């Protein structure tokens, strides 16, 4: 089993079945949370969430930040993020923290999204994934 180390997180190699389960759970949980968040934003008619075939797209709408895209990368067993604020990043899974993390920033996907979306929407955002 190959292990890559960062300061806080440890990436372990996942088999295809485990990767599919974990990445789907993360993106589906995030989609559900963001859909609920969008329902609360009655003054942001252009806010939109779409999840299809392993790709989650978040249009921040009237908040003006742009579009987030998160997608599965099965060959690499990663989740990739394209953020209008921080740019592109790749996230590996750490089983001991139950978190998707970036080896370059040593930050979890949940931490990054919480920080950026809280800033964009001006309210505390609690992301349901690590």
TrEMBL record:
GO terms for cellular component: mitochondrion. Signal peptide: none annotated. Keywords: Ion transport, Iron, Iron storage, Iron transport, Mitochondrion, Oxidoreductase, Transit peptide, Transport. One of its GO terms (molecular function) is iron chaperone activity. It catalyses: 4 Fe(2+) + O2 + 4 H(+) = 4 Fe(3+) + 2 H2O. PROSITE patterns: FRATAXIN_1 (PS01344), FRATAXIN_2 (PS50810). Belongs to the frataxin family. This is ferroxidase. It comes from Mycoemilia scoparia.
